């Protein structure tokens, strides 16, 4: 493991009497008491042994030795860099053993031992662990530290982590300043997001929003000129905060041109990167949004056939492990659009299975649950999300999406007790997933609750834009089930209520768009 190799190299300095004078720890406060040479040597041997165990993937053995070091009365008198690497390695061990809370605590203690030793690897681990522990301020700070202090390393940041940090920053007291620092830092290092140009533009549309919020009109106009993809343009046209920058009467035409560009760029990217399944997926998704379902499906089927025909030692795509379940999930959507319902369900079951293999135990299970309850198969829907609980690796949004499935299924089964529990959780955690909560309220027919939720979102500047996008008029969903028709009718009724319309008129506009709703 890389972290053990790093620790092993650092240990040579941490344990060397001659080299130690030149290390960072020599500038830190010296030990308060003297440690006997024999006890110091014993702890040094244990640390070397823990590193060797870690490198040979004996994580439990490494953790045991590290705990023995920490529990020694002499540990507090060891040099700061020795204590840093002990706690750092313990964090690695706990993370490998899927114990995120102890891993996070150990990493924090490592930083307390010797703050100057915190490097890019430290901050990368802090991003992941604080994200899993819902330590929002710490996660935002870790992302910011990477971008500011280690710009080259920050180029490898997962774009999902960056978007999560930007969302979390909105709820922090100094959130606008933190978002601005992250986004301008990314712009400065010419960061490229994992998902290609469309994902990049999601970042820069956020920067546009922050520039408007902070009064940087010139900066906002410069960013707007670079936004050419559909998902980046719609938020600007529907929100009155931004409409002075655009001509609303040209919204649909400009959106259509942006769709055409996205498809053209996706074709170019797929041709230039024939070994990337992600590029195939991006093209298929762009085609799907414009109603070109048969070509979108053929694009995916060709890729899957290419995978099947490739030798095992020479796979057709380098990113199949990460992308295959998303490809099959998209294939399920397309089959459903085309009215091939049984094939769509079979594909989603396969997507769930492939997702589990790839370590995604949440997304595709929720999608399968959605498909089941929309077809009136409530018991199977509940079974599909049975494993998604707080103790799982689910994100707060993932937990909300799973509860949505349960609410809609319990409503169909008439299970009022479990329905109340799941819906109560969703109401208490609304900010974790407004889309799933909206769908749950539709399932139970709570028009007043849905109207109240939408108005509250519109009143809040942080959630207003997302609510406006949900309220837009899209092309009708193809091949809807009877339940989907029922839910859409109720949603339209709520959208047309005078109180909801008054809130919409205050903050934005509802336009008709040449695309299909992306759902939650």
Overview of the molecule:
This protein has 28 helices and two strands. The two termini are 38 Å apart. 70% of the residues lie in helices and 2% in strands. Strands 1-2 form a two-stranded parallel ribbon. The chain is globular and about 80 Å long. It is mostly helical and 520 residues long.
- The average pLDDT score comes to 91
Number of helices: 28
Helix content: over 70%
Number of DSSP E strands: 2
What structural category do the secondary elements indicate? mainly alpha
Q: What is the strand arrangement across the widest sheet?
A: 1-2
* Low-confidence region ranges: 12-32
- Molecular shape: globular
End-to-end distance: 38 Å
Q: Report the radius of gyration as a whole number of Å.
A: 26 Å
* Helix and strand sequence: HHHHHHHHHHHHHHHHHHHHHHHHHHEHHE
Strand content: under 5%
How would a crystallographer describe the biggest sheet?
2 strands, parallel
């Amino acid at each position: 493991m890389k972290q053990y190799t790093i620790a092993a190299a650092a240990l040579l300095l941490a344990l060397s009497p001659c080299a130690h004078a030149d290390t960072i720890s020599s500038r830190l406060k010296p030990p308060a008491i003297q440690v006997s040479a024999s006890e110091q040597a014993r702890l040094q041997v244990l640390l070397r042994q823990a590193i060797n165990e870690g490198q040979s993937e004996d994580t439990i053995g490494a953790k045991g030795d590290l705990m023995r070091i920490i529990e020694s009365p002499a540990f507090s008198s060891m040099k700061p860099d020795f204590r840093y690497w002990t706690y750092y390695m313990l964090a690695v061990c706990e993370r490998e053993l899927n114990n995120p809370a102890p891993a996070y605590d150990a990493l924090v203690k490592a930083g307390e031992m010797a703050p100057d030793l915190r490097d890019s690897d430290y901050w990368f681990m802090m991003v992941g662990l604080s994200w899993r522990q819902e330590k929002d301020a710490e996660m935002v700070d870790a992302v910011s530290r990477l971008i500011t202090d280690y710009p080259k390393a920050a180029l490898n940041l997962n774009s999902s982590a960056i978007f999560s940090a930007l969302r979390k920053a909105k709820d922090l007291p100094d959130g606008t300043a933190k978002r601005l620092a992250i986004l301008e830092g990314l712009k400065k290092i010419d960061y490229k997001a994992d998902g290609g140009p469309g994902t990049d533009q999601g970042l820069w549309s956020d920067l546009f929003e922050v520039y408007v919020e902070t009064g940087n009109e010139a900066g906002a106009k410069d960013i707007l000129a670079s936004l050419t993809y559909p998902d980046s343009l719609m938020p600007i046209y529907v929100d009155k905060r931004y409409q002075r920058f655009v001509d609303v009467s040209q919204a649909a035409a400009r959106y259509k041109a942006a769709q055409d560009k996205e498809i053209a760029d996706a074709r170019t990217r797929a041709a230039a990167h024939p070994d990337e399944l992600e590029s195939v997926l991006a093209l298929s998704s762009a085609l799907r949004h414009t109603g070109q379902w048969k070509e979108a499906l053929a694009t995916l089927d060709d890729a899957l056939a290419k995978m099947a025909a490739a030798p095992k030692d020479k796979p057709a795509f380098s990113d199949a492990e990460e992308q295959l379940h998303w490809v099959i999930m998209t294939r399920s959507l397309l089959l459903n659009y085309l009215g091939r319902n049984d094939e769509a369900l079979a594909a989603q079951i396969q997507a769930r299975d492939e997702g589990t293999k790839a370590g995604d135990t949440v997304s595709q299970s929720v999608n399968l649950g959605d498909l089941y309850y929309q077809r009136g198969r409530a018991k199977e829907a509940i079974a599909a999300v049975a494993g998604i609980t707080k103790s799982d690796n689910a994100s707060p949004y993932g937990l909300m999406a799973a509860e949505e499935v349960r609410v809609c299924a319990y409503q169909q089964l008439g299970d009022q007790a479990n329905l109340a529990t799941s819906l109560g959780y969703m109401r208490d955690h609304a900010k974790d997933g407004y889309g799933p909560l909206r769908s749950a309220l539709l399932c139970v027919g709570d028009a007043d609750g849905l109207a109240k939720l939408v108005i509250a979102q519109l009143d809040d500047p942080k959630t207003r834009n997302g609510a406006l996008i949900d309220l837009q008029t899209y092309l009708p969903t193809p091949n809807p089930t009877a339940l989907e028709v029922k839910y859409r009718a109720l949603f339209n009724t709520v959208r047309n209520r005078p109180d909801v319309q008054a809130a919409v008129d205050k903050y934005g506009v509802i336009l008709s768009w040449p695309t299909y709703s992306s759902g939650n």
